[in-house]
Amino acid sequence: MTVCSEFNFFSDPEAAKIVLTQLEGPITVIGMDPCYENALTWKEYDRLRETKSKVNDFLRRIEEKLFQKLRTDMGWEKYVPCDEFAMAVVINESAVVTEFKEVYATVEVKGEYTYGMMVVDWGRMLKRPNNVRLVTKFDNEEFLKMLYRPVNWK
């Protein structure tokens, strides 16, 4: 959404901050770096959506206008499947996550340029306990196997 924030955190940074700083449970966040590093070409995206199914038909319909704009008007060279990465981690984390860091993270809610940015305390300056498992590397080959595996939706 901006140079510093992704869609969900930008849309409601106050809620994202509450989740990161007050939820008492394990929180796994996939950093944007591995998402961009493992982005799909538009040809791969088209291949993903070419299979005929109710799910793909639905996804094609809801994605069509936005992705056309991303491809042509905004010049995005690749499809960044953040939601698909998140689901892959939920389904089989050990297969797709090759590295993560235990960190303290919060969300900026006041910045002019950083509104909605996840702020990671890499230098441990805040002296707060770790609250996030931040995925930093992904096994793209395993991810693609999961992504292209046929699903039997009933």
From TrEMBL:
<feature type="domain" description="Inosine/uridine-preferring nucleoside hydrolase">
    <location>
        <begin position="2"/>
        <end position="144"/>
    </location>
</feature>
<dbReference type="InterPro" id="IPR036452">
    <property type="entry name" value="Ribo_hydro-like"/>
</dbReference>
<protein>
    <recommendedName>
        <fullName>Inosine/uridine-preferring nucleoside hydrolase domain-containing protein</fullName>
    </recommendedName>
</protein>
<dbReference type="Pfam" id="PF01156">
    <property type="entry name" value="IU_nuc_hydro"/>
</dbReference>
<dbReference type="GO" id="GO:0016799">
    <property type="term" value="F:hydrolase activity, hydrolyzing N-glycosyl compounds"/>
</dbReference>
<comment type="similarity">
    <text>Belongs to the IUNH family.</text>
</comment>
<dbReference type="InterPro" id="IPR052775">
    <property type="entry name" value="IUN_hydrolase"/>
</dbReference>
<dbReference type="InterPro" id="IPR001910">
    <property type="entry name" value="Inosine/uridine_hydrolase_dom"/>
</dbReference>
